[in-house]
Amino acid sequence: MLHCHECRQGGDGHVHASTGAGQFDGAYAGTWTGGQSAGGTLTSTFTMTVAAGVIQGTFAPISGSVTAMSGTVSAAGAIAGNIPAAANGCAVVLTGQASTSTSGGTTGATLTGAYVLTPSLTCNTASGNWTASRSR
Q: Which H helix or E strand runs over 71?
């Protein structure tokens, strides 16, 4: 349970934890861009929700991945996640860093990182980058 010295009012009207993994709680919208298994480069959008260090997201398929992403964010902001492969597609591993910044009494949060396709019999390795901001 949070005590008032551990909370702050976010610009989204909700109270967020100011320390620990809870400081990153909220809804995020972002973009990813990078390499595909077949050799091309794509860019698309995604959404993520962070709650108490657990990340759930929805991505357009990246080289035959499914659309559901899951992961974690630590109190220090380290992000680890994955998107499983669909049939004959690629699994995706995401890593990154969460950060917060305060401006005019509003604390924003940004998630940035990279992805790598897991090589397999049906998937060539490739990589790219992603970034998301907490929605207001």
A: strand 68-73
β-partners of residue 122 are: none
Torsion angle, CA of 40/110/29/82, rounded to 10 degrees? Answer: 60
Q: CA 69, CA 21: separation in Å to the nearest integer?
A: 18
CA dihedral 23, 25, 29, 33 (to 10 degrees): 70
In this prediction, residue 83 carries a pLDDT of 97
Amino acid letter, 98: A
CA atoms of 68 and 45, how far apart (whole Å): 13
Residues 15, 129: Cα–Cα separation, whole Å = 30
- Rounded Cα–Cα distance for residues 132 and 29 (Å): 5
Identify residue 67 by its one-letter amino acid code: T
Residues 94-121: pLDDT tens digits?
Answer: 999 999 988 887 788 999 999 999 999 9
H helices of the chain, where?
A: none
